Amino acid sequence: MPYCELSSNGIKIFYRRYGHGSTKVLLIIGLAGTHESWGPQIKGLTGTLEPNDEETAAPMVSAEAVGGGLGEEGRGENGIEVCCFDNRGVGRSSVPIKKSEYTTTIMAEDALALLDHLGWKKAHVFGHSMGAMIACKLAAIAPDRICSLALLNVTGGGFECFPKIDFQVLSLAFRFLRAKTPEERASVDLETHYSKDYLDEHVGSCTRRDVLYQKYVKAISSNGMQPTYGFEGQVNACWTHNMTSKELDTIRCSGFLVSVIHGRFDIIAQIDHARRLADKLHPAARMVELHGGHLVSHERPDEVNLALIELIKASESKLKPEEWSHIPERQSGWLVSGTQMPLTNRDKDGANSLLILCKVLGKLQLNFLYFFGTLVMGCEHISNTLRIKPIRVAASDS
Questions:
Q1: Into which CATH architecture does domain 3-162+227-337 fall?
Q2: Segment 266-283 mean pLDDT
Q3: Hey, what's the torsion of the CAs at 36, 37, 38, 44, to 10 degrees?
Q4: Which region is the signal sequence (predicted)?
């Protein structure tokens, strides 16, 4: 099995490579996900789901071919090689016990060590959710190793990781805390990963919810639940994540292009946070909004793959950041936002007031969620403490 062993602490990072070609792509998955979660993008970029170490003759798919659809005629010499991996704390990678061993900076250093291990001088780096936070840190730490940056369903970490408070989210939070079986966990995961419209679509005689539910239960049952240390550590990485102004300046001014791709109906990572990040990275960043939920890479794979291929093509053609970000709205289901009009003094005052209000509301929301979570766990503890065990009665001789 392919592992990258970190010389400093002995931690092993499990990875897979797919496809062949001079264009290198590193995929970084999010919280509790494994490398397999990138399936639709691996297939879309390379034309195969067969890992290089297990295949006999791997097909090569050019970026031009992927942009126009896959097929035998799309295979060429200048193809795409993809590497994806399990972050520390999940899958086949090592699971450190201490929370302090999980930060987006440390995990970005894991990704950088993997690039060194592979012998890749530069790569297009695409991250999803927590993986996008890690990708941001990697781009800030080693901007010279980045060809382009794609941030899918990203937030700025901290309180931005918390969803908008409504009845649906409270119900999901309660069910998530109480989920003990693959069936219970699968039910919650579906509602947090996908939009309701998508889950309610019919595929033959069943809904997508029914089909995906069976797949999720099977996957969770076969792979097992994520280790507690790993889950709590990765949550800590999300909670402590923060991009400084200097780091954002580094990304914005390093010359590579950025795509911020987000599902409009994401209940985990609110789209407003992604829009603000795209604004901070202007003019290097393009905001792409799609009809989907948190796992928009699965819900709208063709559109996501097209956006990624466009990013690769634009980077290889040396497109200027100003030309990249200033793109008009186009294509059904797409909303691409680019440059903004300069703010007047009055607009700036209003924007500052709105920002302060958002921060206050965010902190109130965080406190409420903390209180809610504590209440649920407290009630469960009391219930377990007061539970009366049945008394065993000896059988009568008569």
A1: 3-Layer(aba) Sandwich (3.40)
A2: 96
A3: 90
A4: none
